[in-house]
Structure formats: C-alpha cells, structure tokens
Backbone:
C-alpha cells in the first residue's frame, strides 16, 4: 500500500461541487474519487455537461462564480490543494500542473503575441529574462510542431488556424515542464486528422518529458492508444473505472457499453454518436433518485430507482470497478 | 520590411491581418471620420506650430486698428484692443488642445484605475467606487467648478503672494499656471466618472472570458492579468470614449470661460473670446463668429472621428 501512495501524483477523494441556482444549490459533481500516478495517463470520459471541466478547474481553485467545492479533498504530490495559500497555489498553477483548455479560439489572449503568452509563465515560474523566455518560446513552438516558430512567436492568435492555436495552447501548458498536464477536450474544436495529430503529439511529449496526463474527452475511440486507465463519468458520478484495455475488452456498466457500441459510427457528428444511448443526461439539481442512469438504462430494475449503486470492484484484481446493480460483483478473495 | 513574406504552407489559409490594421482599413472607408481626422490633424499642427507662424503677436495691440472687419491684413479682423483675431484664434487652439489633452489624460487615468479596480477586484472596492462615481455625476458640473474656483482661487493666490514675499522667488509671482491648474483640476474632477463606468463594464465582461481563466491557470499574478490581459482588451471602446472626450473637454472649457471660471484673459482661449464676442456681436459679429466656428468645427471633428472609430473597432456593431 505504501509503495502505491508514494507513486501517487494526484489523489482526489469525495470531491463534491455545487452550483448556486435560483432553486437552491444543485450538485454537479457528486463525491468522486480520482487518482493519477506518476507517469500515468488517465482518460476522463463522459457526455457534455457531466462535470469533467468543473472537476479539473476545481483542483486549481479556478471555479467560476457561484460554483464551489463543498466536500472532499485533493492532494497533489502529497500537498492539499484546497488548503494551500494563494501564493503556493500560484506556483502549482502553470508550474507543476499545466492546463490545456477546451476552446483554442477563446482561450488565448487575442491582443497579445503568441510569443509573449508563452513567455509570461516562464518569466514568473522559471525566473527567466524576457529574452531567455522568448528563445524558450521558440523552442516550445518547434516542440509542438509549429512550422517557422521564429516568425510565429510574433503572430497574434487570430493569425493562426484552429489546429495551430491548439498546439500553441499545448505549448503554453507545457512551458514550465509540469509534472501533470490536464488537457480538457483539447481536440473537440478540430477536425479528425488534426485531432489524431494532437493526440500523437501529446503521446510523444509525455514520454519525452516523463509527465502524467489527464485527458478529458467524450470520445473513447480517440484516446484508446494514449491513456493507461479510463474513468467514465456520468452526471457527476464515476460509473466505471478500469485499465484501458480491460475497459474496451470487457465494459461492464451499461453506459460505458453504450458509449463503446457507438464507436463504429466514428465518422458521424459527435451528437449522433452519443444519442445512440437514447435520452439525455439529467440536469444538475434534477437527478433522479437511485441510479442517475436509470431513466436511460436498458437494464434498469426496481432497485435502480430507489438505491444508488456503489462503485465496486468487478474484477479479481480490483483495478476494474463499476457502479451498477446489474453487474455481478467480484467475490472478495479474502 | 516587405509586407508579403513567405508563409509556411499549412498556415496560408488565414490572411494575417492585424486587429489594428483591420480597424484602420474600415476607418479609412468612413468619409466623415477621415474628415474629422484631417481637421484634428490640422488643428493639432496649429496648436503646436501655429503661434510661431502667425503674422501678429496675440497680445500685440494696435489701437489704430480696433474692431476692424476681416480683411487681407487681418483675416478674422481685429478686436476692441486692435489685436489680430486670427492670431488669437490660432493661439487659442493651443489652449484648447492643452486643456483637452491634460484634462482627458487626468480623467482617463483616474477613471481607468478606479474602474479597473472596481471591476476586477469586486466588492467592497466596487461598491465604494461606484458610490463615488454616482455622487460625482449627480453634482451639477458647473456648480462644482464654480465652487472650486470661488473657494480655492483666492486662498491659493494669497498663499502664493505670501510665499513670494517670504522667499522673493519669482516662481511664486507666476499666476497663469494657478489658473490652468484650477481649470484643469476641476474639469478633470468632473470628467472621470464616464471613463470609470466604461472601464468597469469592460473589465466585468472580459473577466469572464476563457483566456482570463487560462491566464490564472498559468499562475500569473493579478497585476499582470490586469495589465496585460484585461486592460488591452478593454482598449477599443476606451479609444472611442477618449476621442469624444477630447471634443467635450474643449466645449466644456469654453462654457467655463463664458461663466468666467475658465482660462483667464489675456491668455487667449476660444471660450473667453466667445464670451467677449457675445457682448458686442450685434456690432462686430466677426468677434463671435471666428472663435465659435473653430470651436464648432473641432467639436464636430472629434465626434465624427469618435463615431468612425466606434464602427471601425466594433465590426459587429452598427451596420
Ligand atoms: N459557469 C457556469 N454557471 C452555471 N453552470 C455551469 C457553469 N459551468 C458549468 N455549469 C454546469 O455544470 C455542469 C458541468 O459542467 P462542465 O463544464 O464541468 O461539463 P463538461 O463535462 O466539461 O462538459 P463539456 O463536455 O460540454 O465540456 C453542466 O451541467 C453545466 O451546465
Ligand atoms: S444500476 Fe441499474 S439503472 Fe443504473 S446502470 Fe446499472 S442497471 Fe442501469
Ligand atoms: Mg468541459
């Protein structure tokens, strides 16, 4: 057990996030446990609105107004992120944890040159001079595969295509060689070939820099070759958690099966892919009693509508877990 | 440097047009704005170099030639002391620009700082600053200026006189700049609230943009985020407001001069020329017409330019 904890980079326990609404507080993330080991790549999968972005933003204490963490804790490298002083937290942000945002069109400062946006964290976290930072910025742009980096650092974001901008975002996230890179759907805005390029890029960089990665997506197929382990989120709860090969070979939760069953239709628009499950996820604050997936679940039973299934091991090794009454539990070896 | 550079193939899809160059392109197509810009450039040149080029000294009295109608020798005629009105209008341009630029700069500095703090840091700063803004705006402008002038001018003049007697430093004899100080100060004091409101609104809207969260996720300090991410993005509407503000300041100075709380004679300002001219306009209309026409022209030019900038900087706005 102790060897395991030593290897933990990120450890989240019982994280609960609530939104203040006119009808009172609504739970959007409901007591989830997450962990990422050193050098590991975790995929976080789930439909739009299931709380993926808020979970990651909450780790860095970047939640928007009226949304807050009400329970749980998050340790990074053994330190409690929620209890850190603002000063310590600023060192972690950008320094230890790099973030790549969902939308490359709006996540770059439109009136600041690419080179300066890359230089800023280097100046703050690494104490570089502006000149050193610029040189490093050029190297970073080359690293993420942007042609002509010497000229590109002079460009403004709107002078670059979407794919190039996403590469710039990744370069910014990687600037200070963080221990953990959190990439929040970094490819949704891009077309399929460029998506694959970005995935390959991060794969190569991860090995080169020896960092851990959390890759958020709603596209299971895209990340198959990238991640070690997958966590499937549904309406703010974890419904399944397994090593990636295990998950593909033997998905247990009906929701995961639905997601995987729709993969052959990869060429379709993302919306139609997800609709193959039928229905839509519940809005925050309107979650049904019992299993949150019950209204859409083909296997739903009476017990599902009154009791909440717990996330429990479904394989002997215990590394594969699912939250569903229809899945037979692994008998404890002891 | 040539504008056309070899582009790496995959990037050629999007034409590299800078935000400002794009805005300039749109501005150029707006005739009224270009007219405004031309007039302002001409007036600015006059303000800078005019006083060295005028045929007469603005104070030079020629009692032989009083109240003359416009002629070739005196383009705008002469006034009751035989001073050349054209030369005085030219010098008044300098006064007008001085007032406009200094007042707008001070008002902008106060307004931007307070507005940015209110918007970025929120309560309790926001509440206090907005209260201050409302209070300032609810006091009638002219009243405030008259009160400031009436209550401060004499004490300051007396203090200066006492200083002079004490130190015999000729610096304290110079009273022209007290005048300027009071006019500039009081005008700035009533002009900052609109800037504060505008900047606050801008900051509030920019604060929730994704690139601000992205900057925070990089661990950047609030100061850097404010100075390099928020303020530059708020600049467009501010430029528009400044253009309009410069024109307003010129008109305001004239209004104050008219009420006797503006720049004092003998320093020529359009305002005090207009107020002098008003007393005799039935007999010597040119004494009113010349400064009034120039003031009107300047004010119209700034408002045309402001409108043009507004359209140029917000392509999604009107039309
Ligand atoms: N600023 C906000 N104000 C109010 N509600 C919000 C806000 N941001 C997110 N939410 C709500 O919180 C829930 C979770 O949002 P989140 O952004 O974490 O989803 P997501 O899983 O990242 O989805 P997507 O795939 O669309 O990015 C959603 O139902 C969303 O409507
Ligand atoms: S617990 Fe019941 S409703 Fe929920 S996923 Fe399993 S079978 Fe479906
Ligand atoms: Mg998201």
Residues:
């Amino acid at each position: 057990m102790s060897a395991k904890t030593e290897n933990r980079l990120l450890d989240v326990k019982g994280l609960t996030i609530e939104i203040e609404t006119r009808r009172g507080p609504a739970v959007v993330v409901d007591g989830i446990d997450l962990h990422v080991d050193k050098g590991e790549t975790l995929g976080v999968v789930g439909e739009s609105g299931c709380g993926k972005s808020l979970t990651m933003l909450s780790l860095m204490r970047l939640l928007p107004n009226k949304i807050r963490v009400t329970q749980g804790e998050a340790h990074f490298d053994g330190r409690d992120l929620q209890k850190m002083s603002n000063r310590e937290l600023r060192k972690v942000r950008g320094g230890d944890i790099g973030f790549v945002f969902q939308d490359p069109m709006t996540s770059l400062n439109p009136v600041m040159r690419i080179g300066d946006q890359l230089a800023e964290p280097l100046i703050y976290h690494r104490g570089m001079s502006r000149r050193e930072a610029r040189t490093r910025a050029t190297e970073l742009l080359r690293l993420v595969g942007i042609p002509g980096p010497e000229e590109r650092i002079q460009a403004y974001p709107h002078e670059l295509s979407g794919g190039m901008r996403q590469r710039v975002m990744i370069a910014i996230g990687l600037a200070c060689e963080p221990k953990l890179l959190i990439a929040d759907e970094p490819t949704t805005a891009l077309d399929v070939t460029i998506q694959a390029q970005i995935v390959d890029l991060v794969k190569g960089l991860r090995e080169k820099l020896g960092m851990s990665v959390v890759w958020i997506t709603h596209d299971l197929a895209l990340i198959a070759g990238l991640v070690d382990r997958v966590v499937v989120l549904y309406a703010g709860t974890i419904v399944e958690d397994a090593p990636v090969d295990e998950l593909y070979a033997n998905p247990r939760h009906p929701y995961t099966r639905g997601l995987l069953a729709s993969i052959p239709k990869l060429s379709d628009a993302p919306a139609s892919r997800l609709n193959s499950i039928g229905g839509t996820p519940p809005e925050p604050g309107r979650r049904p009693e019992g299993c949150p997936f019950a209204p859409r679940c083909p296997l739903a039973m009476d017990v599902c509508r009154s009791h909440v299934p717990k996330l429990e091991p479904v394989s002997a090794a215990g590394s594969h877990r699912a939250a569903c009454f229809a899945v037979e539990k692994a008998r404890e070896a002891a | 440097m040539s504008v056309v550079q070899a582009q790496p193939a995959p990037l050629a899809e999007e034409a590299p047009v800078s935000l400002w160059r794009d805005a300039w392109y749109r501005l150029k197509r707006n005739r009224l704005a270009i007219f405004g810009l031309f007039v302002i450039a001409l007036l600015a040149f006059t303000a800078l170099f005019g006083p060295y080029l005028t045929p007469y000294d603005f104070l030079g009295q020629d009692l032989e030639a009083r109240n003359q109608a416009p002629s070739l020798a005196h383009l705008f005629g002469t006034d009751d002391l035989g001073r050349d009105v054209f030369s005085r209008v030219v010098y008044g341009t300098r006064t007008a620009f001085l007032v406009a630029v200094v007042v707008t700069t001070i008002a902008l500095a106060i307004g931007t700082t307070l507005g940015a703090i209110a918007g970025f840091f929120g309560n309790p700063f926001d509440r206090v600053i907005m209260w201050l803004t409302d209070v300032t705006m609810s006091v009638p402008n002219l009243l405030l200026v008259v009160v400031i002038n009436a209550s401060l001018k004499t004490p300051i003049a007396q203090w200066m006189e006492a200083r002079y007697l004490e130190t015999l430093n000729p610096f304290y004899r110079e009273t022209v700049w007290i005048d300027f100080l009071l006019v500039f100060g009081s005008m700035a004091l009533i002009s900052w609230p609109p800037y504060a409101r505008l900047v606050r609104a801008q900051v509030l809207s920019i604060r929730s943009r994704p690139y601000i969260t992205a900057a925070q996720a990089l661990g950047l300090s609030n100061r850097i985020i404010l100075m390099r991410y928020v303020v530059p993005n708020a600049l467009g509407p501010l430029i528009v407001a400044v253009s309009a503000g410069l024109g307003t300041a010129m008109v305001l100075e004239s209004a104050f001069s008219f009420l006797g709380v503006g720049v004092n004679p003998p320093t020529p300002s359009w305002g005090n020329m207009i107020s002098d001219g008003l007393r005799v306009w039935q007999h010597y209309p040119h004494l009113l017409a010349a400064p009034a026409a120039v003031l009107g022209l300047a004010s119209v030019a700034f408002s045309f330019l402001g409108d043009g900038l507004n359209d140029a900087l917000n392509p999604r706005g009107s039309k």
Remarks:
- Residues 85-121 of chain B form the longest helix (37 residues).
